[in-house]
Amino acid sequence: MSDQLAFDWPTGVALGPDDFFVSEANAQAYAMLDTPETWPERKLALIGPTGSGKSHLARVFQSQNDAVLVEAATIGADFRTDAKTVIIEDIEGLPTLAEEAVFHLHNNLRNARGTLLLTSHVPPSRWSIALPDLASRMQATTVVQITNPDDALLSALIMKLFSDRQINPQPHLVQYLTTRIERSYAAAAEIVARLDTAALAQGRKINKALAAELLDKM
């Protein structure tokens, strides 16, 4: 970490499964998930681009609140749970046959003063829900958004992506990439994957020269 600090890398970077690097791009979402008692009707929609950390935050929330977490696409017509805190990931992928079950889940949680967290990469107005009663309840959900990354978060994300591949990049490489790629989670994932693939294919080190070549091609 001493080398990182010397190059002004962000401290507290999310490298562990229960860690989360907070910046201006996600600070509001992080704070909201820490205070579910303040959510109107105790339900919240966490919206953000692919790769923005929604699932990471949802799992931190799950561990802290003894919640049941389920992927929307796996919910069936007979879905039931007695849990008082429920997380539905990627709610935009909810099957039509499961809408009635989620409608009852929503009402049961509201009546029991339970908590419902929904994640999606698009806002509730763009969720394709056919059941009118469920659609109206979902569209009334309070929304908190994770925005595109600022420099601090983009640097942290690049570091995390390299770490996931057991790669320890030089600080100046991370700084170089941060100032030259599109400011998005997808762009960070793409350049790290391309660098890893190219380095293995060409038998080269992952460094600024290789990054410059790939960025020129991109």
Automatic annotation (TrEMBL):
One of its GO terms (cellular component) is plasma membrane. One of its GO terms (molecular function) is DNA replication origin binding. One of its GO terms (biological process) is DNA replication initiation. SUPFAM superfamilies: P-loop containing nucleoside triphosphate hydrolases (SSF52540). InterPro entries: P-loop_NTPase (IPR027417). PANTHER family: CHROMOSOMAL REPLICATION INITIATOR PROTEIN DNAA, DNAA REGULATORY INACTIVATOR HDA. This is DnaA protein. It comes from Yoonia rosea. The lineage of its organism: Bacteria, Pseudomonadati, Pseudomonadota, Alphaproteobacteria, Rhodobacterales.
